[in-house]
Specification:
By secondary structure, the protein is mostly helical. It has one domain. Helices cover 84% and strands 0% of the residues. It contains seven helices and no strands. It starts with a helix and ends with a helix.
């Protein structure tokens, strides 16, 4: 490996990683001519770790999105219950219309009645205790 590349290993690694991301084969081919086998193996390992980290990150994002959708649906359901309750529907009718368990709807409606100033998020939090 050239002395300059060796002294700036972190910059070299970042440069090669970016080149690989964008599939710039000319730069990659040139880089492998000026670096030694040991450093090439190091770069390869670092790039593989970057890919593993990206996979882990993507999986975390996917799970976070799923959880966010789930929570959003809970809040929307409470909003619907609140609106129906304010329009005069009984908890049993709300449960039937929203296809939810009667005891769940009764408990949420009770929380809404006793805490009308609470947001839908706060009602869900109180329900989950």
């Amino acid at each position: 490996m050239s002395e300059i590349a060796y002294q700036n290993k972190d910059v070299t690694l970042k440069f090669l990683t970016e080149a690989l991301k964008h599939k710039n084969l000319g730069i990659i081919t040139f880089a492998y001519k000026v670096i030694d086998k040991e450093y090439a193996d190091y770069v390869k390992g670092a790039i593989m770790m970057t890919k593993v980290a990206q996979l882990i990150f993507d999986e975390g994002v996917e799970k976070g999105v799923e959880k966010g959708i789930e929570k959003g649906m809970e809040y929307t359901l409470v909003r619907c219950m609140r609106n129906m309750l304010y329009k005069g529907y009984e908890a049993a009718v709300i449960a039937d219309l929203l296809e939810q368990k009667a005891d769940y709807v009764e408990k949420v409606c009770s929380l809404i009645r006793s805490n009308p100033e609470d947001t839908d998020v706060e009602i869900v939090q109180k329900y989950k205790g």
